[in-house]
Amino acid sequence: MSLSTFAAFLPALTREPQPPVDPTGKLLASVALHRYGAVMTVNQNTDTLGTNKYPSEFWAMQYNIKPTAFVSRYMGADNTLTNFGRVEKSIYFQTDRWQHPSTGTIGLIPDYNSTTWSSAGAAVFNVTAGQAKPDRYPNHGQQLYDVSGGVYGWDSVQGAGTNNLAELTGLIDAEKSQYSEAPFAFSYRNGRNDTPEVYAPYFLGGRNSFFSTSGDANTSYGSGAGLPNNKTARLDYVDRASATRYADFTSGVASIGVESGGTATDRDNYLAQELLKTVQSKGFFQDFMHWHTAGTLVRDMYRLTRSTLLGQDVHFAGYEEALRYLWARQSVQSVTVEGTTVSLVWKAFDLPEALTIPVSIRIDTTGTDLAGKHLASSVGQVLRKSANVFVVEVPYGTSSFTVSETASPVYIDLGVPAIGFELSGTTLTVTCDKPCRVALWKAATGTAESSLGAPVRSTAYQTVHTFTLTSTEAAGDLYVGALSERGQSAVVKVGEAPPNNLLFSDNLEGSSYLSGWNIQNGGTAYAIQHQAAPGGGKALRFELRAGDPPNNSGTRTEVYYPERLEEAWYSFRVYFPSAEYADETGTSRESIAQWHQGGGSGSPYNMLLIQQGRFWLFLDNDAGRNIRLDIGSQVKDFWHTFVFYTRFSEFAEGHIKCWHNGTLVADETGPNLAAGFSLPEVKLGIYKWDWNNSGTTTTDKRVMWLDEVKIGNKDATYAQMAGQT
Length: 725
Fold this sequence. Notes:
It contains 13 helices and 39 strands. The chain is of the alpha+beta class. Helix 1 packs parallel to helix 8 and helix 8 packs across helix 10.
């Protein structure tokens, strides 16, 4: 299957099934496979921090990626960089060192990097000075056991040598001592993992040097997640290959027997393919590259990863964070619900001190008294995923918690920071819409991003940061990066406005509204009103009643944008008051958004409709395509956000994508126009054809609120349309 075919097929595989509704109206609770209820987890990592570390951090900030740097107190550490928080720090484990059995000091294993034994080696091992030996030998575990005659190391039959692995545990203690919080993930120095069993009691997982270019990336993430699926043994993660090594794809790595996977184009297609497969399998994707040799490939990998996963609910995590969440999640034995109280039973775990990442418990209030309400929890913090789906973050060992309705919700904010700036003389004031740390990169005018040096850092989480510059610095290139408390980041260039790409935008707060749009309704006083909206501010209220005078032969109250666009983005928010929008039985439905070609083309081929209390997408074409997608519950008394990307065509390049409340719910390619007619115009509002010609249904009234209407050109982005930039 080609990448394009696979990508087109993917939405049908990954579209989240509608949650089951307990017929008794009982609250549903379950453990989320990924933190925050995401569909997959992504990490990119490197070992040692040297050349290219500051540009790589800049690109991680720019593309909102959380990489991990495996470093050692002996090499490659930069605590100023890692303490800032964009780059996670974990252990680059020095497999060539040990705690000397006689002196108790940490040093190189005698003759490890030599091809001949010396007197130092002969003093501690059963060898003769001058005798030939393998390079990078002996390693912890079986090799040390064999060469020492059972004094050191570990044997698969006998277990630990007579030194009881003190040569290793002393080294582990020394490595972990450089951290304020001891790490439990590591990368093997020299890729040496000859006996991974010796590391399992001390770590949650470790990355080895291996990877594949053959389409079998390791993305396993415990029970029911990733490929291979259901990998639940610690050893599976202590000796783990990377899913990809993007920077090494074209060259291969001869030392581990991996040949070139092809050209740079093949590399990009392969990365996208494996990322999309990981969405499907709900796995943990990890890429490794040496930043110090990868150059701008770091940027390229981040950019491609973000564009490939556009609109997917992805958690970008540090390697350490991902493993801590995995094992905390695996430790939940059962989740039960009684009323609004959720109880958890936990399995025993041998490294409880490592489980510091909360477990995400998914709460579904559909069909309960809490449906459509704001929630608070007696334990942990709450993330609202949609009208009726929440995630409660509970610490490891929590026995129970209770959820309740609240009029003053405080939800986890995973939004990307919005950054403002004002440069007055040599004083730069940076503002953020949420408490953030800020990094300021200063460079001469025209400096390439790949040449950026160390930034100035303001490490307090606050909304206003002030920097004093020299006149030369103020006249040069200045980049501001902001990092929120929840690890979301963005970068702006001072003095450079971000590309707008918006053809139209109206938050409906002004005295006039939807300038340039046209109205279609029966002329009733209530059809469209500009009023105070539910939840505050202003919005448009649409009301349609059975028996309303027709407009253009239909019972409708709509607005339409007259410009017909071949390729564009659209976004809007809608709200349906429960007292004025009763669910209907049967097949009656109505449109709330449509792209209509007009001119005798017949019914529109692309519509967003409501039927029986659910949102549906109808996507048709001349070839007989009749796609009917159930994309979610039309929860009442809740603001729903829709984002559409559209490319209209009579041919195969036609494309429509739809996001509902941040989740990609449709991605359909192929012809989507009636041949021989003009491009469509977008229409928003209510059109109920079952009420045409005095028709009736089980209801006689429909009320919908509309707000935050945007239209973007083909170069707009999901983030712009969704209000993330």
